[in-house]
Specification:
The complex is a heterodimer of chains A (390) and B (174).
Chain A lengths: L3 H24 L4 H12 L11 H22 L2 H32 L4 H12 L3 H10 L8 H26 L4 H24 L1 H8 L4 H21 L4 H11 L2 H28 L3 H4 L3 H25 L4 H10 L5 H12 L3 H23 L1 H7 L10
Helix pairs in contact in A: 1-2, 2-12, 2-17, 3-11, 3-12, 4-5, 4-7, 4-14, 5-7, 5-16, 7-8, 7-11, 7-14, 8-11, 10-11, 10-12, 14-15, 14-17, 15-17, 15-18, 16-17
Chain B lengths: L3 E5 L3 E7 L5 E7 L4 E6 L7 E7 L1 H11 L1 H14 L4 E6 L16 H5 L2 E7 L2 E4 L12 E6 L1 H11 L17
Antiparallel strand pairs in B: 1-2, 2-3, 3-4, 4-5, 6-9, 7-8, 7-9
Classes of the chains: A mainly alpha (390), B alpha+beta (174).
Chain lengths: 390, 174
């Protein structure tokens, strides 16, 4: 590490910059994620103010940020909610995957990218941003809306499917064969099942080992276990992020609630560093030629997500107007598209990172706006909201 | 009023019901204990019209007014109105005779003439519990009856598993 004062200076400037951007984002009702990416572009290589001294710290902190994002995601959902979503909305999850991988496939093929990059691209058009959407539902006062359970179920299933998709992506990126991919999938499915069983059967024991009256102890124990499991899954060839997600699922409900509150600030800090660092590693000058494909990708995947939401909400007996709301609410892509792109970049496909940056910048901004004006769009389209449809 | 329950993954639980006046109503309870009460638009019954948000503290206070306190008040009013009728609250001590047994096992009415009108368990109140309702340590049983009957009931509910005061009177022979 270079002179400490330089590191402090850079980190201080980054944190204050991120804080200001967060305020701007909230002011316009936007997610801060695209602004964090922009901040990264600004400070990064080829940007206006390149960061050099704090590079190694930022790299490690960004990795931890990914782990904490997925840990928080696992803590968010209880096993009952996962199994209820699986039971009720499994077809929606399948439709979601089938439709939303298409834009990534099409654009990837059109760009004549190698297969591993296309698989990553299909993944990042598939996964909606639970973070942005959960915030959006609260902000728009739509938590009690009839289409909301369908939206949340689709998000849960995507997140659960991520635990299987990420190991597959890693195998594909390392140019592994079909057998290796199959081994990866079965290991991932086994690990997810084990985590769910742990959560339901051994929750008492897990809770006793991890919980303590002092918040500090809970933080250290949960973080420690998360890092250990992440190290284990990474060395097994599955992604470290999957390990963190599984730890989140396995933690019993009452402790999960506490852990969410205790680890919230850490997650916010490290996740912000992750988004900024993703922008840092992207050269804005290389971004310009990718704006056109990114826009095409965004347009296509808006259409496919509308279809997904439409289908899922219709399964719950929601009228067309509500179906459109569900579809448009699912449009934002964010943290997990960036996580997938990060893995692809680490696997030697920097073009995925560039395209993902432009793509997430577009959809994380356009998505919430579309969701907000969903009902006026429905009015223009003369979509009905027939009562008694339920 | 029947509530249908819907899980909202990552948020909490939604309870839906329609009031007798025909108003569709939803209550969303989030994990932190906060609540949201919403009504729906006439022209779009899938979308929230008005929505009241309550902090965990406010939700608890409202639940208290609607639930626990009201049952308590009713019982108190009842005993005031009818002379000679009293009400009492008895805690089922953990490990005592009726911890884990059913309400009917106490044979309270046969033995003491008292009626058990509610069980208070933590924050919830079970009004008019049936004889099959299980009792747990820490439950508070609300009863009404004569002053003497309530005294006896207190002794019965306070028994250890070994004790057996006030045996159930054998059925009278014809």
């Amino acid at each position: 590490m270079k002179a400490p004062e330089l590191v402090f200076l850079e980190l201080g400037v980054i944190f204050i910059g991120v804080s200001l951007l967060g305020i701007i984002a909230r002011r316009f009702g936007l997610s801060p994620i695209p602004l964090y990416l922009l901040a990264g572009l600004f400070f990064g290589q080829g940007g206006f103010l390149p960061v050099t001294a704090s590079g190694s710290f930022v790299t490690v902190a960004a990795e931890i940020g990914v782990l904490l994002l997925l840990l928080a995601l696992g803590l968010q959902f209880s096993p009952e909610e996962l199994s209820a979503s699986l039971a009720r909305h499994r077809p929606s999850g399948v439709v979601d995957l089938a439709l939303n991988a298409i834009p990534g496939l099409v654009i990837g093929l059109a760009l004549r990218w190698p297969w591993p990059a296309i698989v990553a691209l299909a993944g990042l058009t598939w996964i909606s941003s639970s973070g942005i959407i959960a915030q959006l539902l609260g902000d728009l006062g739509r938590t009690a809306n009839r289409e909301t359970p369908a939206i949340l179920s689709v998000l849960v299933l995507e997140d659960l499917a991520m635990a299987v998709y990420l190991p597959v992506l890693l195998v594909v990126l390392s140019r592994g064969g079909f057998v290796q991919a199959l081994v990866g999938v079965s290991m991932a499915v086994g690990a997810v099942t084990m985590a769910l069983i742990t959560a339901t059967r051994a929750s008492y024991r897990v809770g006793r080992v991890l919980s303590h009256t002092q918040d500090e102890q809970v933080m250290l124990r949960v973080l420690g276990v998360t890092l250990l499991v992440a190290a284990a899954t990474q060395s097994l060839g599955a992604s470290a992020a999957v390990g963190a997600f599984l730890v989140g699922i396995a933690i019993p409900e009452d402790l999960a609630e506490r852990a969410r509150a205790i680890l919230g600030p850490q997650r916010d800090l490290f996740a912000a560093i992750f988004f900024v660092s993703f922008g840092l590693s992207t050269d804005p000058r290389q971004l310009v030629p990718l704006l056109a494909p990114a826009s095409a990708l965004a347009l296509l995947s808006i259409a496919t997500k509308i279809a997904t939401g439409w289908y899922a909400a219709a399964r719950d007996g929601v009228a067309p107007r509500g179906r459109l709301r569900a579809g448009l609410t699912l449009v934002p892509r964010g943290e997990f598209s960036v996580v997938i792109a990060g893995i692809a970049v680490a696997g030697g496909y920097p073009e995925v990172g560039l395209l993902a940056t432009a793509y997430v910048l577009i959809l994380a901004v356009v998505g919430p706006i579309l969701a907000r004006y969903s009902d006026s769009i429905a009015g223009r389209l003369r979509l009905g909201a027939a009562p008694g449809h339920r | 009023m029947n509530f249908t329950e819907t899980l909202l993954p990552g948020v909490g639980v939604r309870y839906d019901a329609t009031t007798r006046a025909g108003v569709a109503l939803s209550i969303v309870l989030d994990r932190e204990g906060g609540a949201e009460v919403a009504t729906y638009l006439r022209e779009d019954p899938d979308a929230v019209d008005r929505c009241f948000r309550f902090s965990p503290h406010e939700a608890a206070a409202i639940a208290e007014i609607l639930g626990g306190t009201r049952v308590g008040t009713r019982v108190a009013d009842l005993s005031k109105e009818v002379p000679g009728l009293c009400s009492g609250r008895f805690t089922i001590a953990p490990g005592s005779r009726y911890d884990g047994r059913r309400l009917g096992d106490t044979k309270a009415r046969t033995r003491t003439g008292c009626s058990l009108v509610a069980i208070v368990r933590g924050d919830t109140v079970l009004a008019a519990p049936g004889p099959h309702e299980a009792l747990h340590g820490g439950d508070i049983v609300v009863a009404i009856g004569s002053e003497l009957g309530l005294e006896d009931l207190g002794v019965i509910l306070g028994m250890t598993p070994e004790e057996d005061a006030f045996p159930v009177p054998a059925p009278q022979g014809r």
